[in-house]
Amino acid sequence: MSLQAPNGRIVVWLTLFVGVLFQIMPLPAVVDDWRPDWLLLVLIYWTMALPHRYNILTAWVLGVVLDVLLGATLGIRALGFSLVIYVVAMHFQRMRNFTILQQSLLIAVLVGVFHLVVFWLQYVLTKASYSNAMFWPMLSSLILWPWVFWFLRRLRRHYKVR
């Protein structure tokens, strides 16, 4: 089977799988708080690039998968992913026209919204405690977005994903 399958679905699902792996990969405690939301970054890219194919349903399914893999309350990350991807899907044309710096700033805000939703749901369901460390992934995602965008765009063009 070739990676140039019709519509390049294999490439997209491989990148989403790698995003899941990076999201659950164990890291040293020093850098674990700074872990970017790899899966969310990949989902945002594919929603911007192909909004009619990869959108809220994809985000919900991958959020549930991530909740199962992390052993979290089922549906918390699914709801967070879905809300963020809904915003991206509604404004994908505008986001495509932003500069990479503007996109990075917007990605940081969206990652912050995701973490606030996850914290709020954890607080309501399990009385989680607040920590400023939950906002550090915003900064790491802001810094990594240009490279993630460049890499995924290059993959999309090389394998002619449509």
- Straight-line N-to-C gap: 18 Å
User: Can you tell me the residue ranges where pLDDT is under 50 for at least 5 consecutive residues?
Assistant: none
Rg from C-alpha positions?
Answer: 15 Å
**What is the molecular shape?**
globular
* Strand fraction: under 5%
| SSE series | HHHHHHHH
Q: Output the structural class.
A: mainly alpha
pLDDT averaged residue by residue = 93
The number of helical elements comes to 8
**What does the largest sheet look like?**
none
- Count all strands and give the number: 0
Give helix % range.
Answer: over 70%
Summarize the structure.
The protein is mainly α. It has helices at residues 9-24, 29-32, 38-49, 56-70, 76-90, 92-97, 100-126, 136-158. The two termini are 18 Å apart.
